[in-house]
Amino acid sequence: MNLGLSGRTALVFGASRGIGAAAARALAGEGVVLGLAARSESGLAAAQAAHPDALALAADLTRAGDAEAAVAAMLARHGRIDLAVISAGAAQGGAFASLDDAVWEEALALKFMGMVRAVRAVLPAMTVAGFGRILVIVGNNGRQPSPAMLPGSAANAACLAVIRGLADAVAADGIRINALNPGPTRTDRWAGLVARMAAASGAPAAEVEAGLLAAQPLGRIAEADEIGRLAAMMLSDAADMLVGTSLTPDGGATKGIG
């Protein structure tokens, strides 16, 4: 692709793995100057190894102040943040009756409050510049809740509500904020899900995965780099008319009109 992003700067939260890492790869391929934020030292080292020229930033979005520190470091190095990707958080699933307060609080602390902190941190510099593109990786179960994944569904739905409401408020400042809602995607999280289901059922992991894939309209799930390329597109000027939009690339798994 050539999305006209070359020379832009991007701060990617959750850049060390999964879709955040895929978005970073796609942006790097477009010539974007990267700042890569991750929670763990090992994750940060992996991100830095993949993108040696990028600015590596330790940031835990469950902690107040980490997002602001990452933004300050990015501005000190590059003077601006044109683009931001927020890809942070996964919630524990399970039957509703088995989920205690800690599970719900953890889901909201990382996925929802993490997004709030990151968006709040990047907005001032974008407002001063009169330009910015923010993309939050949310998830399709925010629109189509699963009874086995309600903490994550609730956090995702809350993210979508804030994105939709905030988008109108910042559009006149030249800032676009949108959501990307992937369905099942081949990441380490998917591998872990298959492994847990196989252990619980006693069936081979390959058999469990085959059953899950057969239930998908396309007969497969997304590859992380497919979602990463969509993320790059949504951050480009080609998507300038998207304001508070929620795009759901899940191969038709979410049922509904509109």
Tell me what you see in this structure.
By secondary structure, the protein is α/β, with parallel strands linked by helices. It folds into two domains: 9-183 and 225-247, NAD(P)-binding Rossmann-like Domain (Rossmann fold, 3-Layer(aba) Sandwich); 184-220, no CATH class. Helices cover 47% and strands 14% of the residues. The protein contains eight helices and nine strands. The protein has helices at 18-29, 41-50, 66-78, 101-129, 150-171, 188-201, 205-214, 224-234, and strands at residues 9-13, 33-38, 55-58, 83-86, 132-137, 175-180, 185-186, 222-223, 246-247. The strands form two sheets. It has a seven-stranded parallel sheet with strand order 3-2-1-4-5-6-9, with helices on both faces. It has a two-stranded parallel ribbon with strand order 7-8. Helix 3 runs parallel beside helix 4. The two termini are 27 Å apart. The relative contact order is 0.15.
CATH architectural designation of the largest domain: 3-Layer(aba) Sandwich
Annotated CATH homologous superfamily of the largest domain: NAD(P)-binding Rossmann-like Domain
Strand content: 5-15%
Radius of gyration, in angstroms, nearest whole number: 18 Å
Global structural class: alpha/beta
Count of discrete structural domains: 2
Total number of beta strands: 9
